[in-house]
Amino acid sequence: MVQIKTPEQIAKMREAGLVVAAIHAATREAAVPGATTKDLDEVARKVIADHGAKSNFLGYGGFPATICTSVNEVVVHGIPSDDVVLKDGDIISVDCGAIVDGWHGDAAYTAFVGSGHAPELIELSRVTEESMWAGIAAMRNGNRLVDISKAIESYIRRQPRPAAGEHSLGKFGIIEDYGGHGIGTEMHMDPHLLNYVSRKRGKGPKLVPGLCLAIEPMVSLGTPRTEVLEDDWTVITTDGTWSSHWEHSVALTEEGPLVLTAPDGGRAKLAELGVTAAPDPLA
């Protein structure tokens, strides 16, 4: 069942979203050569505690950390560890969430560690992030869920294939086994949101005010296929190509989309795309 929120409930989700944005800012600053992914997890724990929020990742299905730290060929669900030391030239996707008064926020970003990154890695992150925004821009009253999937896939498919380099097979792969989801009183709720169009899934529900979604494309420089490591969490590409993951939690209102986990509510980026963002309920 798809959960529809009231404006007051969306305001609470905005509070949780701003905690997630604060985690992003702090972990970005900490993602430097020589830091461990466990260091980043400790940074996130402190931010959550300082805001009086709760983690929705820690203990979820037995997950042992506050954030997911996915380095290079790891697509998603990487477990923070003292053994994973960030190196110059790495990329890392940080996925995290927070709960405020029972309402959830969830978002992810990809960061570059150090400097000197190959052009195909820079393009990989850019394409993944921009496809997320294309999906957010398609979250309009009267559209269907499939319109978001179509916008994400169409953006990625339109991009020129990157030149094959050390980390690339010269193509983009839209990860097949993972996608976005509803969010609200739980972190993962109906509906499931594919990052590509599937004829088997139909058009999906109509997008209406009060619907909240986590929109999260994951893209690799090669295969769309993944496998899970023996820890039962860490997901990697089957061909070892590197990947990027971007995500925002978004509420649809009568006035348009509100990006709950973006500091400005998504206003600046949506304006570039010709979409008016909803007013921030906490402004």
Descriptive account of the structure:
One of its GO terms (cellular component) is cytosol. This is Methionine aminopeptidase. Pfam families: Peptidase_M24 (PF00557). The protein has 283 residues and is an alpha+beta fold. The chain has one domain (7-272): Creatine Amidinohydrolase. It is 27% helix and 23% strand. It is built from five helices and 14 strands. A hairpin with a 2-residue loop joins strand 13 (248-253) and strand 14 (256-259). Helix 1 (7-30) runs antiparallel to helix 2. The two termini are 31 Å apart. 51% of the residues are buried.
Biggest pleated-sheet summary: 5 strands, antiparallel
- Report low-confidence residues grouped into runs of 5 or more: none
Question: Total helix count?
Answer: 5
The CATH H-level superfamily is Creatinase/methionine aminopeptidase superfamily
Domains (count): 1
Helix content: 25-40%
Strand order of the largest sheet: 7-6-8-13-14
Second-tier CATH architecture = Alpha-Beta Complex
Determine the strand fraction and express it as a percent band: 15-25%
What CATH calls the topology is Creatine Amidinohydrolase
